[in-house]
Amino acid sequence: MKLPRGGAYLQPESVDVAVIGAGPGGLSAAIYAAKNGLKVRIFEKKSRIGFPTVCGELLPTEEEMKRLLPRADGIPELFDAAASAAVNKCRRIGVLSPLGGSWSLSFDAYILDRHRFESLLFEETRLLGVESTLGAPARLMLSGKKACVESPAGGAVEAEVVVAADGFPSRAAVEAGLPVREYLRPENLAACLQYRVAGAGVEEDMVEVYFSSRLAPGGYGWIIPKGNGEVNIGIGARKSALRGKAAVSKLLDSFVRERLGERYEPGKIVAKAADVLPVGGALRSTCNGRVLAVGDAAGMVMPTNGGGIPTALISGKIAGETAARHLGGGCALLEYERTWRRQIGEELENATKLRRIADRLMGSDRAVHWGFTFLGEKGVREVLTCKVPWTVSPLIKLV
Questions:
Q1: Paired strand residues for 287
Q2: What is the pLDDT of residues 280-320, one digit of tens each?
Q3: Cα–Cα distance between 301 and 281 in angstroms, integer?
Q4: pTM for the full model?
Q5: DSSP for 349-388, written as a single string
Q6: CATH 3.40.50.150, applies to 89-110+185-278
């Protein structure tokens, strides 16, 4: 396929795998495809890897990940870069209900410098010979058996396999005909806003999670310590619950003033970040023809805790390895879908069903408080880590 360019025609370079998006999922896919001998090209709309940061930057440790996703393969090697990119370490999660209930849960996690984390992964792709085009959104075009990707920043390729890793909603997944549009309902989307605040003076080893329909309708607020008094503080509010409510920025300002009190001054905001997260579970189909969707682009965010880095790394690894087996004649590309569902599908499905059950409570602060009280410390931990408490298991069958 020749691509038009200013009246002339450009003959694209041939590659085995084109990766659209250089977040954790795309970089993981590129690494594992290249490790298996494939020729890979990355396209990224940002001009700087990992910047700006649009997440809380919390990543469970390797041991926690083994408990969270026990069927996932290759967790130790996936998390090699985490310790090097960590600026702090969490030992506990404090959960606060709207009426003052609190539960302290042991949980080990790295607090990352997301820019450094992704830069380390990107450097690994470079050392493996992967070429990259940064600075403009890439366009995917499918014609028969051909998949072409081009970027206004320069560069066009014809690929045997394309990995859609361009976040949510994924333009590449839409262009591939994957069922993204049917997912775009308000109840499946969380509007997230976060400030990085200096001089907050919080406990340095504890992540705090707050539930309040007044401050974070349909979602929750968080305080994640970055170390040296700096925190990521933000809220995620469901779009379906925001109707008639204040703007997310006003809700976050109220949350910050209430939780940090006199420690907060607007001049201490170091950075701001906004994003929309998918919280309706994975797309019903993540493979179409030559295109595989990974991470956020595939809806692989845990709806009960908003975590997306682990699932992106794991699904990216599976995509890269499946592409290599497929091009070697060892399997159909559809094996990608079967493999990720076997490794992480149960936890994603559990979290989606638990979110739907929680939706029936989250309009009432009193119901949320008593729901947490009923679950107790063990049950609250299970919900946040995508496990189904036995006390709730009969309800799972109804959603």
A1: 292
A2: 999 999 999 899 999 999 999 998 888 899 999 999 999 99
A3: 7
A4: 0.93
A5: HHHHHHHHHHHTTTT-HHHHHHHHHHHHHHHHHHHHTT--
A6: no
